[in-house]
Specification:
The complex is a heterodimer of chains A (about 230) and B (about 200). By secondary structure, chain A is of the alpha+beta class. Chain A has helices at about 30-45, 50-60, 65-70, 70-85, 90-100, 120-130, 185-190, 205-210, and strands spanning about 135, 150, 170-180, 195-205, 215-225, 225-230. Chain A has 2 domains: about 20-130, Cyclin A, domain 1; about 135-230, SH3 type barrels (Roll), CATH 2.30.30. The two termini of chain A are about 30 Å apart. Chain B is an alpha/beta fold and about 200 residues long. A two-stranded parallel sheet of chain B has the order 1-4. A two-stranded parallel sheet of chain B has the order 2-3. The chains are: A alpha+beta (about 230), B alpha/beta (about 200).
């Protein structure tokens, strides 16, 4: 969907914040950031929702909320919505718990506990194993390296990984990746469906017009269903 | 959404964690453990070790460029969001820049948590349209004849930029080279110089 997250090529979002360009600022600037990150990973590990659902949840934010909020507010919005909609924790429960707890007292940069619970060990195990998303393909790839393709004119209002700025762009297949799980099927049906994927190269003038200020190549990883052969 | 301020977000995350623990979706000490793992065990030094090895070992460099997933796994840095990797090398002719326009995809176990500038919409919007101008804001001015390649991490593949080894480092060991290799140089918003990187 072309939600507030779909920012590639958009104007008017302003400069990169000067604060972010100062050397040495920590990547997690506030204690709540790491904790939000961790509880999200835990909810996924516990099967409450999957990563594609979590990404899609962020895409449903109100545009002004998305652009005006601190980054981890996006994660909070999505996780809270998913847990509420799936019946785990309601928005009202969170409101109430906030009132009960008052001002938080989070430890910045906590130390690893001396003994780890089985769940803590499981989480650290997940961190270092990862969760690969490639799958055996059910059909051979349609496109070969060097094939000229054009991105389909897709304007789904549901989740996909097609940045809007690539819509209808002509490009060339640079690499076949094999199949990965389709993010839309994962986000909306919670199924693991293989979908052939490609590295596709686009010229900047193709993306931004003959008047494009800069001359460069752009590469994106796109699913087969986003592409069609370029008519010769 | 009426909880946009930092203190509102913090209070809400606090309440969420408390309820998640109660409902068996999280544990407080496990959250501490995960945060500590990210902050202490993951970070750009992992990526720097990969780059330093590629700089000093031509066979490893070839392996990294042809099968980054396996080459990075060989050094024990595979993990969450680092499962599927592609390494792209900077040369005299070509400079690489990585972005995730749709969100903030980044190889956590290899490079740590992404910096704020990578996650917010401003870099994500502009890197795919005016990368040279964006690089200038990072203090990187490339000669006109250096071509820029921009990589939009739009699916599960994550990218590592292999910066050019600077002149003046001949004879240095991989271990000695590691401190020169900054996080930003592995995303494409910095070059590496012979004196210590950020």
């Amino acid at each position: 969907m072309h939600g507030p997250h779909d920012v590639g090529g958009r104007d008017g979002l302003g400069p990169i914040a000067a604060e972010f360009l100062k050397p040495g600022i920590p990547d997690w600037r506030y204690p709540f950031e790491g904790r939000m990150h961790a509880v999200t990973a835990m909810a996924i590990a516990k099967g409450a929702f999957n990563l594609d659902e979590q990404r899609h949840g962020i895409e449903l934010m109100k545009w002004s909320d998305y652009t005006d909020s601190t980054y981890y507010a996006h994660w909070l919005f999505s996780v809270e919505k998913l847990l509420n909609d799936k019946g785990y924790i309601s928005h009202a429960e969170i409101d109430q718990r906030m009132a009960e707890l008052g001002k938080p007292d989070m430890t910045p940069h906590p130390e690893k506990p001396e003994t780890l619970s089985p769940f803590a060990e499981q989480m650290i195990d997940v961190l270092w194993k990862g969760t690969p998303h490639d799958l055996p393909a059910t059909d051979p790839p349609v496109f070969a390296v060097d094939d000229m393709v054009v991105v389909r004119n897709i304007h789904a209002t549901t989740h996909n990984r097609l940045p809007g700025y690539l819509n209808r762009a002509k490009g060339v297949i640079v690499r076949q990746y094999g199949a990965f799980h389709d993010p839309a099927a994962s986000a909306h049906q919670q199924t693991d469906v293989p979908h052939q994927m490609y590295m596709v190269k686009f010229a900047s003038k193709e993306l931004w017009g003959a008047g494009a200020v800069e001359d460069f190549d752009l590469y994106a990883d796109l699913f087969e269903g986003y592409l069609e052969p370029l008519p010769s | 959404m009426d909880w946009l301020s930092l203190s509102d977000v913090e209070a809400r995350v606090n309440a969420l964690e408390s309820l998640m623990v109660e409902k068996g979706l999280a544990e407080h000490e496990a959250v501490d453990a995960v945060v500590a793992s990210f902050e202490n065990d993951m970070g750009p030094i992992n990526g720097a070790k990969v780059v330093a090895r590629a700089w000093t070992d031509p066979e490893y460099r070839q392996w990294l460029l042809s099968d980054a997933t396996a080459a990075i796994a060989d050094m024990g840095f595979t993990g969450l969001q680092t499962e599927h990797m592609v390494a792209v090398e900077n040369t005299d002719e070509r400079h690489n820049v990585v972005v995730c326009t749709l969100c903030s995809c980044y190889p956590w176990t290899l490079l740590g948590i992404p910096p704020a500038w990578f996650k917010y919409p401003q870099y994500r919007a502009r890197a795919v349209k005016e990368p040279r101008s964006v690089l200038a804001e990072f203090g990187v001015t490339l000669p006109d004849d250096v071509k820029i390649d921009v990589w939009d991490s739009s699916a599960e593949i994550r990218y590592l930029v292999v910066p050019q080894r600077p002149k003046g480092t001949e004879g240095m060991t991989a271990e000695q080279l590691v401190p020169l290799i900054s996080r930003d140089s592995m995303v494409g918003t910095a070059l590496v110089s012979a004196s210590e990187g950020a």
